[in-house]
Amino acid sequence: MADLEELLRRRLAPAFEAVAGDPVDPAIRRSQHADYQSDAALALVRRIGGNPRDIAARVVERAELDDLCAKVEISGPGFINLTLADDALGRLLAEVAADERLGVRPVEAAETVTVDYSAPNAAKEMHVGHLRSTIIGDAVVRLLQWRGHTVIRQNHLGDWGTPFGMLVEHLLDIGEAEAAHELSVGDLNAFYQAARRKFDADESFQERSRRRVVLLQSGDEATLRLWQMLINESQKYFLAVYDLLGATLGPDDFFGESHYNDQLESVVDELADLGLLRDSEGAKCVFPAGYTGREGDPLPLIVRKSDGGFGYAATDLATIRHRLRKLHATRLLYVVGLPQQMHLGMVFQTAREAGWLAPPARAEHIGFGSVLGSDGKILRTRAGASVKLVDLLAEAVSRASAIIAEKNPDLDADTRAAVARAVGIGAVKYADLSTDRVKDYVFDYDRMLSFDGNTAPYLQYARARICSIFRRGGVEPPRDAGAPVLAEPAERALALQLLGFEGLIAEVSQNLEFHRLAQYLYGLASAFTSFYEKCPVLQAEGEVRTSRLVLCDLTARTLELGLGLLGIESPDQM
Ligand code: ARG
């Protein structure tokens, strides 16, 4: 345990409790005047009266801080300022350095977590919204798995519903071989749009499509075979995108809408038995509490349409019930764009009212904003069609390759290709994950591939530079060197940043705000840069040299681990 904030909290909490008579959160935070400070004495006055400086003094008297702090001061109206002892920092760093997991233990209470993400629609191009979902969802999976949770990926593929009538008819029109060809080269949009055009223009095609939906839903074997072919080809294409992206999603993670078909009827029955269903204009609806329209009128979630069909909401109700009852998940995450916030909120509320979703289980919408082009509008190609994801990613890699070739012409071709991929894909992912996910962001190759600022290449380069220190010095990272000695302010600042990793990870595991992890890594790389400017490493001698090598090694490992949790690779040279 090397989480400084938590360590200080545990030392101060009993002292506060003794003084206040009740538990008190010491409210530890980083300080400009010392390393950390606690402001809790000020708020306590309202509860127990007296003078906050006296309260602070009584707390400090009782708190066991000698082995951790070099200086404990009461300042201003009653702040407790805490300056850590250099040898305590050294001891903690040694603990972290000796640990594969850099001091972050697996969680004590592991949970089963479902992560609903990526979820493109079959026989349609993935759009940038699906890219965001894939990038964020994958980071969620990596982080929570690493924390020790049982994580179940659920790629909620859009593979069912009325469009498949027209898609199967179009497939029959052009022939299976031609369809397979179009889909396998990833021309999903052309295929979809051709079907759509016919549907809009040709009444007999429309009629055929409607009959085909009925056949599909009634389980007609010939129709199912053609439908399956569409699904298989689409899945192959999506898997190629995941592969290029280095996402952990595989063929076994597809669990699309069609899987819930035979559960829809029973969802309706169960909701009806619970008295939650009401007729509204011929449709069967739930009116979940808390959702009202402009006039305060309750809003319906349509479970069964007036024509007897089931829609998106019915499938999501079956899905949440399945995840709770069959998968026994207690944390259900939905990595879906913000426009679906109300839909998901209504599904969650319905699940609560049905008694399916009850503590400790909870559902969370991990919402995100849009990806914009330089014109500030949703990113599209010049022709106005949505951007093809493979092209977008390939472009990032080829630009990275040009940059790497210029920066480091000595790299052999294979290494350069691998580095370009790590940098190009890393840049795309990092640009996404380093912005507060509820905000929109502008997709800008120049900025995301810049070696300056809060970007993947900057962090990757910082780590590669550390690798080169070890290469140049011909030294191995000192893994059992004991506690490093810290003398320079830049060393202390770096140490404090390194020791903040555990607490940061605990926080991000809860709020899944990956921009905080990004900000942390950026802060770490910056602290390292200042340290490296002021403190010679290879030219230093003896204990100082070893200590600085320990700091270098820990920085490199923390960057690698942190980037890895974001799904970003760390090349050893760039
Ligand atoms: N396929 C949907 C879309 O493209 C996203 C599905 C999200 N997940 C869910 N359980 N509704 O918008």
Can you put this structure into words, describing what you see?
A four-stranded antiparallel sheet has the order 1-2-4-3. A four-stranded parallel sheet has the order 6-5-10-11, with helices on both faces. The mean pLDDT is 94. The chain is 54% helix and 9% strand. Helix 14 packs across helix 15, helix 17 runs parallel beside helix 20 and helix 18 packs antiparallel against helix 20. Strand 5, helix 5 and strand 6 form a beta-alpha-beta unit. Among the domains are: 81 residues, Arginyl tRNA synthetase N-terminal domain (Gyrase A, domain 2, 2-Layer Sandwich), CATH 3.30.1360; 93 residues, no CATH class; 60 residues, no CATH class. The protein has 574 residues and is an alpha/beta fold. Arginine binds next to helix 12.
Please give a quick description of this structure.
The chain has 574 residues and is an alpha/beta fold. 54% of the residues lie in helices and 9% in strands.
User: pLDDT below 50 for ≥5 consecutive residues: which ranges?
Assistant: none
Question: What spatial order of strands do you see in the largest sheet?
Answer: 1-2-4-3
Output mean pLDDT: 94
Rg is 28 Å
Bound molecules: arginine
According to DSSP, the number of beta strands is 13
**What is the percent of helical residues?**
40-55%
Report the structural category. alpha/beta
Could you give the distance between the termini? 34 Å
What fraction of the residues are assigned to beta strands by DSSP?
Answer: 5-15%
Q: Summarize the main sheet.
A: 4 strands, antiparallel
Count of runs of 4 or more consecutive helical residues: 21
Shape: globular
